[in-house]
Amino acid sequence: MFAGMLSFVRQLLEGVWVAIGQIWSNKTRSALTTIGLVIGVASVCAVIAGLTGLKTKVLSEFESVANARSIYLMGNRPQEGRLKNAPWEEIVLKPDELDGLLDHCPSVENFTMIRQNSWSVRSGERSVDSIPVTGISRAWHEIEGRSVIMGRPFSLVDSEHARRVCLITPDLRDELRLNRDCIGESLLMGDARYLIVGVVEEKVQPSMFGMMDNSSAKGEAFVPFATMYKASGGGWMHAIVTSKSPEVSADAQAEIRFYMRRARDLKPGDPNTFRMEVVEKFISGFKKVAAVMTAIAGGIVAISLLVGGVGIMNIMLVSVSERTREIGLRKAVGAKASAIMFQFLIEAVILCMLGGLIGIGAGQLLTAGMASMPNGLDEAHIPFWAILLSLAFSGLVGVVFGMFPAVKAARLDPIEALRHE
């Protein structure tokens, strides 16, 4: 068995050496033959690198504005059951329903209640319409990752006594032409006057595809949740709950579901009158879609490799025709048909592998170009699995399209081959 393996390795090395010699003696023709394969592999690598960079960019920007531990909780009218026609007053989330949430849900770290409205904001002669004003709990800053950069956040007294105090963003301060240190000044929001106690940092909007989009160009204002809830006469609210870690997010959801069903006195069999949306679910869903897009795009572009394979087969048939007398001579001195076939097959595979390697290099250059473009895909790179896949596919193309010329060479009759002119 060892002798057989040794013979195979020796035959393989001899075949590789002969194949390299043939390719080297026909350098120009070999280079032109592999162009199709080079273009195909470079295209596959560039497309996969571009999609990988795009996926990384989208996910990083999405994760920069959304906490992966966040669970959005809101009222929801069920589609069936005894509550499917329940009035919205019974469905909507209520502040007192969340009073014991932290005590009964050990996997929950914190939560903030949210009540949003759109008001006109006025200071002196300056007025800005349709400013988003959000009622928030004190935990909002930690959950949303937006801190107070001047002044102070809402105190416990502000929240419990529904005081008319507010936080504003620098954009709104500039829009109203307030002093840079505007703490202590007052604003007319809606029909009431609010005291500015702090300035909160702007929300970082995703710069998708390099285009900065600041949808809050006119700014935002925030008031204590109790203040907003009282001023709006209740109404629609939701909550953002954070789990202690992404790993216990499922446990936190189960605990919240159990807590809310008990708080709403839902009977067994009753559908939930609330729903939860999880950021992590959207992220994992996008990753699956991106993987499918990469596979489809890579597959479509890989079809171009078949064109390169046809070129390889064509040139190998020419090589068989040119070397017919050589094949006849080798057979006449005892060379086996399998050895002849093996040699031509190795030559086709080496040609394809060379084309694949050059194509990967060209793909790297294209990827570097994409990454260096202004507002380009900074994270674009060719994954290691794509490099291995490109090389494997190149070798497979060599085997598939080199097989026919190799078999044709192996089946040549030695006498007829020696007579060939």
TrEMBL record:
| Phylogenetic lineage | Bacteria, Pseudomonadati, Planctomycetota, Phycisphaerae, Sedimentisphaerales
Question: What region holds the MacB-like periplasmic core domain?
Answer: 30-257
Q: Which residues form the ABC3 transporter permease C-terminal domain?
A: 300-414
What the entry lists under InterPro entries is as follows:
ABC3_permease_C, MacB_PCD, Macrolide_Exporter_MacB
The record's similarity note reads: Belongs to the ABC-4 integral membrane protein family.
**Where is it localised?**
Cell membrane
What are the alphabetically sorted keywords of the record?
ATP-binding, Cell membrane, Hydrolase, Membrane, Nucleotide-binding, Transmembrane, Transmembrane helix
Keyword check for Kinase: no
Q: Does the keyword Ribosomal protein apply?
A: no
Q: What is this protein called?
A: Macrolide export ATP-binding/permease protein MacB
**Organism (species):** Anaerohalosphaera lusitana
